UniProtKB/TrEMBL annotation:
Pfam families: RNase_P_p30. The keyword Cell cycle does not apply. It comes from the Eukaryota. It comes from Papilio xuthus. GO terms for molecular function: RNA binding. This is Ribonuclease P protein subunit p30. GO terms for cellular component: nucleolar ribonuclease P complex. PANTHER family: RIBONUCLEASE P PROTEIN SUBUNIT P30 (PTHR13031:SF0), RIBONUCLEASE P SUBUNIT P30 (PTHR13031). The keyword tRNA processing applies. It is found in: Nucleus.
């Protein structure tokens, strides 16, 4: 997976889009697209008394990834599966550990809804992206310490642009968050995605790079946000899925040169 040519990436396109038309994004200069499944926060269900002989059904809070036709995987565009999960408490890790479906996704993103959740995501949670709901103004302050802690752990912060096209409130919140990321972390480890639920809202590569200037980034950071940072994120996510490995290298025995007499 790490050896693929990921090129320019859009790591958040809603599963509501018609998957069969995803190759139209090649005309915009994109090489890699992540199909996003959004999971809203769900409270714990009340415990029910188990009757004799009754088997308890395990409900996975993460749905299955969207089905991708086999012929689409043979094309020139790379298709990944992403899940974005809202949470408010550190108990989310328990749900992560007991979910079978979450292991089917290539990229895991979270939306921390409280300061406690944001602290846990930056310091401990084994995910790839920290993002936010652009329709709602953040209820907590992003500190330099937590931001840098997340960057050191290889996490990335997401900025979406399609909500800014549709709604003025979202536009204000996205620009405000972008400037916060610049103030506390110099816009390190930023990925710009469309977050689109409609292909018409996805913009070309050069337009997205130019958009980076509005979001407080220089030309190199804008380019990295859809190429180099996205590639690093994908490779990091693959490492998370594979788990910790080690390799033992032992020197081989040198064979003495033998002369053959004729």
């Amino acid at each position: 997976m790490a050896h693929k040519n990921w090129g320019f990436c859009d790591l958040s396109v809603s599963r509501d889009c018609d998957i069969t038309k995803i190759y139209c994004l090649q005309k915009l200069g994109l090489n890699t697209v992540a199909i996003n499944t959004h999971v809203e926060e769900i409270g714990d269900e009340p415990k029910k008394k188990k009757r004799k002989g009754e088997t308890k059904e395990k409900k996975d809070f993460v749905p299955d990834p969207v089905d991708i036709p086999k012929d689409l995987n043979k094309g020139e565009i790379n298709i990944l599966q992403r899940v974005t999960i809202e949470f408010s408490e550190s108990s989310i890790s328990h749900k992560f550990n007991h979910s079978e479906n979450i292991r089917k996704y290539d990229i895991i993103a979270v939306v921390p809804k409280t300061l406690q959740a944001f602290q846990y995501a930056c310091s401990s949670l084994d995910v790839d992206i920290i993002t936010f709901d652009p329709q709602i103004r953040l209820s907590y302050k992003v500190s330099r310490k937590l931001y840098n802690q997340a960057v050191e752990r290889g996490l990335f912060f997401e900025l979406m642009y399609s909500p800014a096209i549709k709604d003025s409130t979202a536009r204000k919140n996205i620009i405000s968050m972008a400037h916060t990321y610049f103030a506390v972390g110099k816009s390190n480890n930023i990925v710009i995605t469309s977050g689109a639920d409609n292909y018409n809202l996805i913009r070309g590569v050069h337009d997205v790079i130019n958009l980076g200037f509005i979001l407080g980034m220089n030309s190199n950071q804008s380019l990295d946000s859809i190429r180099n940072n996205a590639r690093r994120l994908i490779i990091k996510a693959e490492g998370r899925k594979s788990g910790k490995h080690y390799m033992l290298v032992t020197p081989g025995k040198k064979e003495k040169n033998k002369t053959v007499k004729e």
